[in-house]
Specification:
Number of strands of chain A: 11
Radius of gyration of chain A: 13 Å
Order of helices and strands of chain B: EEEEEEEEEEE
Shape of chain A: globular
Helix content of chain B: under 10%
Oligomer: heterodimer
Radius of gyration of chain B: 13 Å
Number of strands of chain B: 11
Helix content of chain A: under 10%
Structural class of chain B: mainly beta
Structural class of chain A: mainly beta
Number of helices of chain B: 0
Shape of chain B: globular
Largest sheet of chain A: 6 strands, mixed
Order of helices and strands of chain A: EEEEEEEEEEE
Strand content of chain A: over 45%
Distance between the termini of chain A: 39 Å
């Protein structure tokens, strides 16, 4: 119930293409869904986050799509660039559980130039 | 976004020694900080929740006597790995929750611990 399932495990996209990473959760108590970007040897950096009251949020080239009924959310990276090559983690949390983040397993994204 | 620092960025120590890692929120006050451990090519594993002025809450399977956490102020939490052994070698990352931006956790740059 506390798991967040993330797919794919790895992804290769051509420069300029769209990268799509998907996550699914079971616990309906989750009410905050952030995405983090992590480069090797660095800490995760918050990219974008969404709450269940909206179905989509866009910030620059990054968009989260959220489907509450399906308990799924996804990250879309438009016009993907080689500099976007990193590991991406989805996560979920709830005030009910002390705002602890439950992380997905991560997706290694490689953007080919 | 808010800035969280960690010190040191990497440390190498001998087996049996203790190592202290500091986590600071630089431009906000964090009543709650979290400590994670990350193995190569793996996701982040929550070790404990650190609350200012009270005892830390440890996740199941994490030895509280092994990983001592102190949250002495609203901007500083420390993790001490006591009597470190090679199996404690890992990447340790802290995060701090900014109460003015509800639920948002900002992560530090991480500390690479190598125990010889």
């Amino acid at each position: 119930q506390q798991q967040v399932k993330q797919s794919p495990q790895s992804l290769i996209v051509q420069k300029g293409g769209i990268s799509i990473i998907n996550c699914a959760y079971e616990n309906t108590a989750f009410d905050y869904f952030p995405w983090y970007q992590q480069f090797p040897g660095k800490g995760p950096a918050l990219l974008i986050a969404i709450r269940p009251d909206v179905s989509e949020k866009k910030e620059g080239r990054f968009t989260i799509s959220f489907n509450k009924s399906a308990k799924q959310f996804s990250l879309h990276i438009m016009d993907s660039q080689p500099g976007d090559s990193a590991t991406y983690f989805c996560a979920a949390s709830s005030m009910e559980y002390g705002n602890k983040l439950v992380f997905g397993a991560g997706t290694i994204l490689r953007v080919k130039s | 976004g808010a800035v969280v620092s960690q010190h040191p960025s990497r440390v190498i120590c001998k087996s049996g020694t203790s190592v202290k890692i500091e986590c600071r929120s630089l431009d906000f006050q964090a009543t709650t900080m979290f400590w994670y451990r990350q193995f190569p090519k793996k996701s982040l594993m929550l070790m404990a929740t650190s609350n200012e002025g009270s005892k830390a809450t440890y996740e199941q399977g994490v030895e509280k006597d092994k990983f001592l956490i102190n949250h002495a102020s609203l901007t500083l939490s420390t993790l001490t790995v006591t009597s470190a052994h090679p199996e404690d070698s890992s990447f340790y990352i802290c995060s701090a929750r900014d109460p003015s931006v509800a639920d948002t956790q900002y992560f530090g740059p991480g500390t690479r611990l190598t125990v010889l």
